[in-house]
Amino acid sequence: MDLGLAGKTALVTGASKGIGLAVAHVLAAEGCSLHIASRTKADLNAARDDINAKYGAQVTVHAGSLADSATATALAEACKDVDILVNNAGAIPAGDIEMIDEATWREAWDLKVFGYINISRIIYPAMCKRGSGVIVNVLGNAAVRPSPNYIAGAAGNSSLTGFTRALGRESYDHGVRVVGIHPGPIETERLVTLQKVHAKKQFGDENRWRELMTGPGGRVGTSEECANVVAFLASDKASWVNGVVFSVDGGGALR
Hints:
7-stranded parallel β-sheet; 7 strands; 44% helix; Rossmann fold
């Protein structure tokens, strides 16, 4: 399906690997020009070169930690004319309330929760002023299936769910849509890291993490499956979709 995204410009954060990288590939394949951001310049350059080789897309690299509010604000100012913002950067660690100390919790939220907020704080008003634009927030199913063993993520994703819905309540009046997705378990490096923590707690052996990698249909999802939903939501094919967050998890949130 041609999503009608050709000629659009998108900013994708956390775009050097996992879901963010898959989103960048799908949007480039649809004809978008890209700004991609993450902490590691070498990984971003590799992503840019691969995307250029495959799709001939224009890709601009922005390296830096979005946990730093000044860096997030500078990125947003540089990209405030984008048609699409995909907030995706985040790495909230697994652990219960005793395992996650205050410093770790704050560091994780500085990147994901305040990273999303600080970038949207600049780009959302610019979109409203132009009367067009889409923000897609990649959140997480911990918001709808909270676990005490992922307590910082459950609380952070719940916060960003409220943030997405609150902006969406007014955004359509300004020609802007704000939506989100809750990915279920997706086979990425990050998921493996999280599952090792859970395996250590449950089995006493982090190397048994694969025993936890199951979901509906006996599998976990792929980054590409999430990226396809993000691209659809960012397109005019979803023009009457606003202020909602969809679970992309094979129905796992219902179990």
